[in-house]
Design a protein that fits this description.
The complex is a heterodimer of chains A (147) and B (117).
Chain A (H helix, E strand, L loop, with lengths): L7 H44 L4 H22 L1 H9 L1 H4 L2 H14 L5 H8 L1 H24 L1
Chain B lengths: L3 H21 L4 H17 L3 H8 L1 H4 L3 H18 L1 H6 L6 H17 L5
The chains are: A mainly alpha (147), B mainly alpha (117).
Amino acid sequence: MPNVNKSPDEYKNIVKKNRKEGSRFKKFLRAYIVGGIICMVGQGFWNLYILMDISQNDAGTLSTITMIFLGALLTGIGIYDEMGQFSGGGTIVPVTGFANAMVSPALEYKQEGLIMGLAANMFSVAGPVLVFGMVSSFIIGVLKYVL
Amino acid sequence: MGNYVTAFFVGGLVCGLGQLFLDYTRYKPAHLLVGLVVLGSILTGFGWYEGLIKFAGAGVTVPVSSFGNILTKGVLMESNRDGFLGLFKGVLEAASAGVGASVVIAFFVALIFNPRD
């Protein structure tokens, strides 16, 4: 064993570094798997709605709404945030995470009232997302209009 | 419009990369969501998002980047039809269902349930 002669501090650094890298890869994998499964569920609803003779576009929209509903509901029950502890980005990136970002702060601040608590805090994350989404799509529209 | 396999692998990849973004930068989940929406808008501007949907289906329509895609699609559609005014009208045109549904659903869910201790 060539590397035994380390000071305690050096040793701690090595342990810390290795643990961090390892857990980062694990977190990547967890996010990958959980996120992938959520997307498969979305695909399932999409296929289901197409089977029900809904046009491909509307079926896509309906499956998005279904996912938003599920994300909101699981947040209400308290399951989604626990899933988030495990999977990180896997539950943040899908639209279910967007619904979670609306419901979670709304619940947390509910006791401050329906208007200043629930409704105002519903947009603490969703607001910026909508603002930047709308502004960026507007800018792209202008560029395409002018060019 | 993709299948379960491509949805899993592409959608999972987007989520995994999102996790790496959170781990290797100091940014918060809100930044990640905003970044993805803007990215979705840009990809749509280049006309690439439709191709991604054809290949990966829900793998790219379930991640929030699809909000950017839908918003931009609406703007481009309306500005083609209505010109300048369409740039404003279009912002919520195609995304109306998703935005409307999320606001209404989130409101009622938050109303019905109570936070857990």
